[in-house]
Amino acid sequence: MHVRERRADGYHALESLFVFAEDGDILRARQRDDGVITLAVEGPCGAGLGGDEDNLVMRAARRLQAATGIMAGADIRLDKRLPVASGIGGGSADAAATLRLLMRLWNIAVEDAVLQQLSLSLGSDVPACLTSITQLVRGRGELLEAQALDDLSGRPMLLVNPRVGVSTASVFAGWDRIDRGALDALDIDGLVRDGRNDLEAPALLLAPVIGEVLEAVQAQRPRLARMSGSGATCFALFDNGQAMAQAATALRRDHPDWWVMETRIRTS
Q1: Are the beta carbons of 234 and 210 closer than 8 angstroms?
Q2: What DSSP character marks residue 87?
Q3: Mean pLDDT by 10 residues, the chain (268 residues)
Q4: Most buried among 37, 49, 98, 221, using CB within 10 Å?
Q5: How far apart are CA 174 and CA 152, in angstroms?
Q6: Which stretch of DSSP H or E encloses residue 237?
Q7: Contacts 24+ apart (CB under 8 A), 212-217
Q8: Are residues 42 and 76 in contact, defined by beta-carbon separation less than 8 angstroms?
Q9: What confidence score (pLDDT) does residue 227 get?
Q10: Sign of the CA dihedral 219, 17, 122, 177?
Q11: Separation between Cα atoms, residue 226 and residue 234, nearest integer Å
């Protein structure tokens, strides 16, 4: 996550490599003919997350309905398995998945340009989540470039969160406004050598436990470990599944109150 500058429109110009996990939240929907849209939230991380109009899933459904003029509705169920406000784009991925799911359910087509604008109106990370492929994302999230990195595809990935939510706005507000250069996302060696997260320092000030997570993850000798997004989740990439499983076992033993998920980077 390289932050290059603060734009005139108030957004930050970013350079970030997006990869997507094989595992995550699950969305289901059943069509209604009366135009009503409902959202029920369940799952291990669903507590405290309401199904009201402010939920990104509900906002995505409403805006798609309005943009297409369709008269159908839907009963949507969100099985929330990823922590809320955790810096891994769970809410944005849910919004993008809602758009894809409802377009299939309602049997409607939306022009790519319209869909991209609609998704960007929901959040800067939503356009990248529409395709859910490994890609370099620039600007505020509107400039997308697919990245075919063979040494990342299918790679074991461990996600660790200390069950602490961090405000994205507060983290960005704490950025020191220093441009430390472009992101080299050509291969994993470049990411290990030059990749960084410019939001790590302000996130650590807000949630020092992130430092404990990074230290504990680094002790497991991954190929690469960084804070994800604006935090507080950290990720670690391993060369094989056995190394990842051993790391997960050690972290769960030593930090039973932390959230730990074993997964793999989705194949592009």
Answers
A1: yes
A2: S
A3: 86 91 98 97 91 93 97 98 94 97 97 94 95 91 87 95 93 92 82 91 97 98 96 97 98 98 91
A4: 98
A5: 31
A6: strand 234-237
A7: 212/162, 213/160, 213/161, 213/162, 213/258, 216/160, 216/251, 216/254, 216/255, 217/158, 217/160, 217/247, 217/251
A8: no
A9: 97
A10: positive
A11: 6
SS3 for 140? coil
Burial call 131-150: b when 16+ CB within 10 Å, e when fewer: ebbbbbbbbbbeebeebebe
CA distance 105 to 141: 27
State both tokens at 27.
């969305």
Predicted confidence at residue 10, as pLDDT, reads 80
Query: In this structure, what DSSP letter does residue 4 have?
Result: E
Burial (CB count within 10 angstroms: exposed 0-12, middle 13-18, buried 19+), residue 108: middle
What pLDDT score does 55 carry? 95
Global pTM reads 0.94
